[in-house]
Amino acid sequence: MFFFFAGGVEQQVRQVLTSSAGRCIVCRSPADMVDYEKVLKVFFVPVWRWPGKEPVMHCNNCNLFFPQSYSLPPPKTADDSAAVSEALRCRFCDRVVEPEFSFCPFCGSAI
User: Fold this and answer.
1) Among candidates 91, 42, 45, 39, which has minimal Cα distance to 65?
2) What is the C-alpha to C-alpha distance for residues 65 and 60, in angstroms, rounded to an integer?
3) Residue 94 neighbours by CB distance under 10 Å
4) Whole-model pTM?
5) In 10 A of CB 106, how many CB atoms?
6) Of 1, 2, 5, which is closest to residue 45 (Cα–Cα)?
């Protein structure tokens, strides 16, 4: 006899605590601080839910959940000239870098 099980546990956002509280560690988009819950699904039907232990960061762009301790600083605003000059420089080699780059073309470090 063959038994097929389709299901698993996934995380879902329960409540947004702080919008744009940091940046995603993968895609560098704004990330929200959220309360989350874990959901057990059997054949894609939610069967059981339980809350997460502590607030985490959630990226709406790539749907990643990650701890607050790994969060990058929140995105800088364009009207602050110091923030613009900092955003256009590599934090390791201090060279000017285009704002759309994720890695420095000079030293190869993540921007």
Assistant:
1) 39
2) 9
3) 11
4) 0.59
5) 13
6) 5
